[in-house]
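From the methods appendix. Each design record in this collection lists the tokenized structure first, followed by the designed amino acid sequence. Records were kept in a plain field format so they could be parsed without special tools. The example shown here is representative of the layout used throughout.

RECORD:
FOLD TOKENS (296 positions):
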């Protein structure tokens, strides 16, 4: 996001950062994360895995490279927790080195993992609420996506002003029944969620939200009695309780079979990049790599 040169920050900004660092138990955060933009539009929060440095480097070299978008309206960050196990100290050292160079990592001091995504989601929303509410939109995504930022900004700039305040969108799931097979990672016990279907919900890997909704969402999460590890389902329940309608965005593609049917340059987000090679390959297909020095 930035060069490997440290720049001073205003005292009031440092004070706010320190308050949020304490509140959210953060170990890494750059004071330049959100202030200073002339016309902020969307903050992209990439839910990163602590030990996946190669994926972060690939994202920086491809779709998050600011040569393809206006960095006065778009900013991105990687959000990650702590690596568990014997590699924890080493991974923290690598993250610190990346942070010192790029300043694009926010790390919180608790374990990371699939079943802990609700915590990561809550921290992401809290971070945006306290430090980045100057952005009208937050876009949360995962490290196995390719995001076409010019398409994303084009889409957001076409959202009418009267439709912005209640805007939540992405790949919409409707009438999805809870999985009751204990061997499945989406398994949810009957006593956790007894209903036959979930409320409509947006796939967590690529979701858009207007930041003005975040205070209400956080308050509803805090008082919710449903403790479910599926963070996108939980968000659907929260939004349903708040009476907020979710929108299906056609340019966000989650399912690989459907993704192959749509031209890459027409998509806002595409899922399924389990390795860096495939990300570089499709990035080159967009024909932006010559200006951005993306490497394979």
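DESIGN:
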């Amino acid at each position: 996001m930035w060069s490997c040169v440290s720049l001073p920050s205003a005292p009031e900004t440092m004070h706010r950062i320190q308050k949020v660092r304490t509140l959210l138990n953060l170990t890494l955060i750059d004071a330049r994360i959100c202030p200073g933009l002339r016309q902020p539009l969307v903050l992209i929060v990439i839910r990163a895995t602590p030990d996946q440095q190669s994926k972060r480097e690939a994202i920086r070299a491809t779709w998050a490279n600011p040569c393809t978008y206006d960095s006065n309206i778009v900013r991105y960050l990687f959000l990650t927790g702590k690596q568990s196990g014997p590699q924890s100290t080493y991974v923290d050292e690598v993250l610190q080195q990346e942070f010192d160079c790029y300043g694009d990592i926010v790390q919180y001091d608790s374990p990371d993992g699939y079943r802990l995504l609700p915590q990561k989601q809550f921290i992401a929303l809290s971070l945006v609420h306290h430090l980045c509410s100057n952005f009208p939109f937050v876009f949360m995504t995962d490290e196995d996506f390719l995001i076409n930022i010019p398409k994303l900004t084009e889409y957001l700039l076409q959202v009418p002003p009267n439709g912005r305040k209640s805007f939540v969108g992405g790949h919409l799931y409707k009438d999805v029944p809870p999985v009751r097979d204990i061997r499945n990672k989406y398994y949810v016990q009957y006593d956790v969620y007894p209903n036959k279907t979930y409320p409509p919900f947006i796939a967590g890997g690529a979701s858009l939200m207007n930041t003005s909704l975040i205070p209400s969402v956080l308050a509803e999460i805090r008082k919710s009695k449903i403790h479910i590890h599926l963070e996108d389902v939980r968000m659907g329940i929260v939004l349903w309780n708040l009476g907020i309608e979710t929108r299906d965005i056609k340019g966000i593609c989650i399912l690989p079979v459907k993704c192959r049917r749509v031209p890459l340059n027409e998509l806002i987000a595409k899922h399924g990049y389990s390795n860096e090679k495939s990300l570089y390959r499709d990035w080159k297909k967009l024909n932006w790599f010559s200006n951005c020095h993306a490497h394979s």
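APPENDIX NOTE: The chain has eleven helices and eleven strands.
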